[in-house]
Amino acid sequence: MENVPVSKQAHSVVGQEQPVRLGKGAALLEVLRVSTKLGLTSFGGPIAHLGYFHNEYVRRRQWMDERSYADLVALCQLLPGPASSQVGIGIGIARAGLLGGVVAWLGFTLPSLIALIGFALLMQGFDLGAAGWIHGLKIVAVAVVAHALLGMGQKLLTDRARIAIAVITMSAALLWQTSYSQVLLIAAAGAMGVWLFHNRQAEQKQPVSDHMQTSRRLGLACLAALGALLVLLPLLSSWSSNLWVDLFDRFYRAGAFVFGGGHVVLPLLEHEVMANGWVSQQDFLAGYGVTQAVPGPLFTFAGYLGAIAGGLPGAIVATVAIFLPAFLLVVGVLPFWSQLRSSPRMQGALAGINAAVVGILLATLYDPIWTSAIGGGGDFALAVILFSMLAYWKLPPWTVVLVGVAGGVGLGWL
């Protein structure tokens, strides 16, 4: 790749003015425009999003060099939260400071969020419970989660120890369903990973590029805020009967403990919003199916659930809450990333956590997804067709959603 003129690069520490030709306001508008374009066109899930980002930010606009982009992707894939959104936030920070990160998130998130909030309001305004296309969306959820599990299993369960962690976690998740069970299972798997894998050779990589370094003081402040909110929000929720405090607490915890990508948020949110009656099972699965048909991050599913639970204010609260940990983690961990990534104990913990994530998602595939969607041979046949479209024919998710909707209507006529 050709050398990029300094005026086109973002070689700044967060909070300092960047040496770009554009002024601060113009740079923010540029970030908003480009990220919104990506939010309108980035179909296909987190891995596809990273490809879109690379083409737009690195190859076309040269906002970041190849090494810096690879560093940022490596960091975000190991952090809890939505990896593609975190990469977008990091690029926005590098281009236009902290506010640039916020703007980049807004542009990438709003298109799908608006679509899902609209669908949620439609669900509330009409009795769609018996509609065949709703049933079709439930079957889409079966195919999508099964496909995600296939890819994650092949990548993350590479030996007998990891397979054992996944199976044990799956069994425990099905037998022990409480508010904190999944978080505790993930923590236990991390400890098991340190014990089993800490003696293995740590992967050595280049240190993160200088212009993506944020200040340690800011990083520590963000990590402190992340931890403080994890402690204080449950206390506030228990002391207060306010719906918005409870909603923010539940979605914040879900965003803070999701390892493994957008699909893994499904089991955490399923327990949080269905156990207390905020969202019915059919509304939950229908919304998850529709989420596969819109571009942008899968975490905007939280906005749909918030809208079902509390209208437009609920959607805003849920969306901000679930994405806030992602922002705090990116800014907080970046200054310490070079040291953490070379730690054998850290890599062992992540190996155990990733295996547990597969187990939790497998448990969720059975209950509630499979148990509520597959009621006969026709349902199973449609699920296999949709799965094959994703796994073997490599068709985009939105086509799978359309076929699932049509298939659900067709099954209702039989």
TrEMBL record:
InterPro entries: Chr_Tranpt_l_chain, Chromate_transpt. Its main location: membrane. Belongs to the chromate ion transporter (CHR) (TC 2.A.51) family. It comes from Paenibacillus curdlanolyticus YK9. This is Chromate transporter, chromate ion transporter (CHR) family. The keyword rRNA-binding does not apply. It is found in: Cell membrane. It is a multi-pass membrane protein. The chain crosses the membrane at residues 98-122, 128-149, 182-198, 218-239, 251-269, 290-309, 315-337, 349-366. It comes from the Bacteria.
